[in-house]
Amino acid sequence: MASALSSLETPCFVVDLKKVVENASRMRETCKSLNLQLRPHTKTHKTLEVAEIQTNGSKRCIAVSTLAEAEYFADNGFDDILLAYPITENKIKRCLALMEKLQLFHVMVSNNAGLDTLEKEVMRLPSGKKWSIMLEIDAGYGRTGFNWDSKEIEDAAVRIKKSEKMHLESLYIHCGNSYSIFNNSEKHAAQKDVISRSRSAQSRLKALNIECQVGTGSTPTCSLPLAENAFFAEFHPGNYIFYDYEQYLLGSCKQSSIACRVMTRVIDHKPDLNMILVDCGFTALSHDGMRQRPEDFCLIEGDSNLRLVGMSQEIGKIAAKEGELDCRNYPIGTILFIIPFHGCATAALHPTFYVHSGTEVQTTWTPVKGW
Amino acid sequence: MASALSSLETPCFVVDLKKVVENASRMRETCKSLNLQLRPHTKTHKTLEVAEIQTNGSKRCIAVSTLAEAEYFADNGFDDILLAYPITENKIKRCLALMEKLQLFHVMVSNNAGLDTLEKEVMRLPSGKKWSIMLEIDAGYGRTGFNWDSKEIEDAAVRIKKSEKMHLESLYIHCGNSYSIFNNSEKHAAQKDVISRSRSAQSRLKALNIECQVGTGSTPTCSLPLAENAFFAEFHPGNYIFYDYEQYLLGSCKQSSIACRVMTRVIDHKPDLNMILVDCGFTALSHDGMRQRPEDFCLIEGDSNLRLVGMSQEIGKIAAKEGELDCRNYPIGTILFIIPFHGCATAALHPTFYVHSGTEVQTTWTPVKGW
Fold it and tell me: Which end of chain A has fewer CB atoms at under 10 Å, N or C?
């Protein structure tokens, strides 16, 4: 039976189901209109329920950030899973077990050491299987991956093609700077740059008789209304399913599309300090964003004159941006909702997500933890 | 059977058992020499095993930061538990259940609203029980609690004394600024200030015929070699059991006493950027400290020329402080240990602690999560 949001113990992470469904549907439509495959990333939520919504019930074609996620989804009927993380030797054993279980499991190779490791382990592959590889390119922004303009990427592709036990699934490029450009025309220009560099790498491989498509990730770039994005074969966004204050600032979403918040209660008044205290400390809200925006790193919903100015383990300090804060307007016990700067970082702090429709709690979701 | 630390999947939170035992023993000795009661705080670790070490096997007399902790310890044979958090109405029901179960359960009252709530609920108390109250004083640093020099604290104490269903266990004071003073003589002076303010509140209550002792918390002040600390009746430190880089900077411990680290592996090289990448992102290491010390917010153990300059969800960027970083010195797969700025914040990110003696993993501990 549904209960009221206000009956929940605070702090807690609350997720608006309707907005999640809308965000999932909008990204699916974007992909459809660009004629590309959506491979949603599960790193933001790490729950079966959201992955089912993201895949529109198919449970096929997802990207994960940890082996713990890959195993959790594989154990629960998901398939066609990409471990979207540089492959290293310590991960091989569990990858092989995943290949036994799944029809399709892909790994990401970001450097020659990764390729060496896979090659060394071909004897242990399940019978009839090959390593399915996404080769990661760094478009010039210093993320993981082969430099887009290096000869290394061509050598790696040739090496994969020559091996009977490796398959080049695609190239993969992450627009690493998409989180630092707040101006729309600059963002479009940067993404066009990424596309032209990807196209260059793709052409150089084609000249070697290696045909391959290119996938990309990141919510800001996948949210761009850019016809040129049709160049890509796959989108791997993750954060879009919840969004957050940062994505709103980046122009990826409207504020009304943000599906996740931290619910907190006022626990004390400090009129001398012009502050109220709430039960939201750094175990409930990530410090993410505090370095970039110390005065404005999250939003107190519906009260634009309030700001969170500090947190200890279980206590948050809220002050007024302008003028005095009249504590009488916030009696002890008052519920406030905080929109996090980074939804992924804040979700990662919570063992349970409280899923609501309007002010009613419908259910809870339990994310998988660890690595 | 014990396994090698190096066989663990990374990132992971590793705890040095010997150091934990030493840190526990040292704080017990300090309390013994000052003739005061140790009520260790469990917020840092949230595990049965560490609480057992902290209480020297007695499982009696602990402080907790959340109801989830209180219930977990109560369900596992611990007793005499203080919920060291401002009591609010939404917590009452679970507190009453804890009182049913425990011989001794104490709540912390930090304002009049807390006292109103307890008074309103006296009819629901288990038969023969009273609310056992620690009255929190704010020594002037803007933490939760009644201002030490206010008449309110006297009124609250009188109100408790008059009630048949409330018992004033003690006053409680937290030296809120102990985390911002890095100079020893200033720290001593600040603590003497806290003591004189506590003594003033205590004397004013005595004048009203209310005798009560004073407890205090915080690892920096409990670690001070200050004879005046004998004024207190109880110490409630928490962080001391693991310590961290911040406590080392504050002078609370030697670097060799820090018992917790994050183990990580090198996953990629970025020679153009003078960087190596490791599998330690913000899901494994808290951003805590990055605002205060952007260039030096954690330590890469044993390699003083390295520093962590940024993190995404699952990746950390490590650069050289001076000169070029020769990636060949850090082959992919190399294990590094990171000493966190704030051990409590980093521990809170991990579902499992890997407990080691030297380089051997002895066991795992599972902290309780949530609120």
Answer: N
Give the pLDDT confidence of B67-80 residue by residue, as tens digits.
999 999 999 999 99
For residue A2, the 8-state DSSP code is -
User: A249 and chain B: CB distance < 8 Å anywhere?
Assistant: no
Nearest CA in chain A to B291: A291
Residues A227 and A287 in one domain: no
| B43 occurs within a structural domain | yes
Query: In terms of domains, do A302 and A158 share one?
Result: no
Out of B243, B278, B297, pick the residue that ends a domain: B243
Q: B1 pLDDT band (50/70/90 cuts)?
A: low
Whether A131 and A52 share a structural domain: yes
ipTM of the complex: 0.95
Asked if the model's pLDDT at residue A234 lies above 60, the reply is yes
Any A CB within 8 A of B225 CB: no
DSSP class of residue A256? G
If one compares A134 and B185, the residue with the highest pLDDT of the two is A134
More confident call, B140 vs B152: B152
For chain A, give the mean pLDDT: 95
CATH number, residue B220: 3.20.20.10
The answer to whether residues A210 and A202 touch, using CB atoms and an 8 Å cutoff, is: no
Structural domains counted in chain B = 2
Q: How far apart are CA A55 and CA B94, in angstroms?
A: 39
Which tokens in the block code for residue A142? 């210093």
User: Shortest CA distance to A211 belongs to which of A161, A151, A146, A175?
Assistant: A161
B302 and B347 part of one domain: yes
CATH number reported for the structural domain that contains residue A287 in this entry: 2.40.37.20
Helix (H) or strand (E) segment spanning residue A134: strand A131-138
On chain A, the residues whose CB falls within 8 A of the CB of B332 are: 88, 111, 113-114
- Does residue A18 lie within any of the structural domains? no
Answer yes or no: do B166 and B263 share one domain: no
SS3 assignment, position A366:
coil
Q: How far is B287 from chain A (nearest CA, A)?
A: 6
> DSSP alpha helices (H): ranges in B233-364?
245-250, 343-347
Q: How far apart are the first and last CA of chain B?
A: 34
Is the residue at B10 inside a domain?
no
Is residue B270 assigned to a domain?
Answer: yes
Strands (E), B176-332: 214-217, 234-236, 260-270, 275-278, 299-300, 306-311, 316-320
Partner B contacted by A12 (CB < 8 A):
yes
Asked if the C-beta of A93 comes within 8 angstroms of chain B's C-beta atoms, the answer is no
Q: Indicate yes or no: CB of A314 within 8 angstroms of CB of B86.
A: no
- Domain of A318 in residue numbering reads as 255-365
- Chain A segment 16-75 residues within 8 A of B by beta carbon are 43, 65-67
